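Q: What structure does this chain adopt?
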Amino acid sequence: MGGKEIHLPALTQRDRDNLAVAADYGVSGVMQPFVRDRADLETLRAALDAAMFPLDPRLEDSFGLGAAYLCAQLPVRLLLPMHMWGKYEWIGRFCREHPEYAGSVAQIRAEGDSFTL
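A:
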């Protein structure tokens, strides 16, 4: 849109209605792909208890900075790491480097693991 700002809410009323219906069916998480700022995260946080966030080993020593920032700003009951490319040991590294969040991090050990909120 060439320099134009678009003002849209993080969640529309229809999104909120859909979340309520989804919760009735046992859905406990959704993805919000275009997070612009903390307010967007706070809006989503009010509706959910879990967050999926990358712990990407390709980022080397910076692999967990985003997840740590998310946890510091908006504590979640369950942080589900993703984009680890089968290197699940990076979850342990994140927990050692950020022990204050370790209790909220899903300990994924293999593809297909499941978790209950």
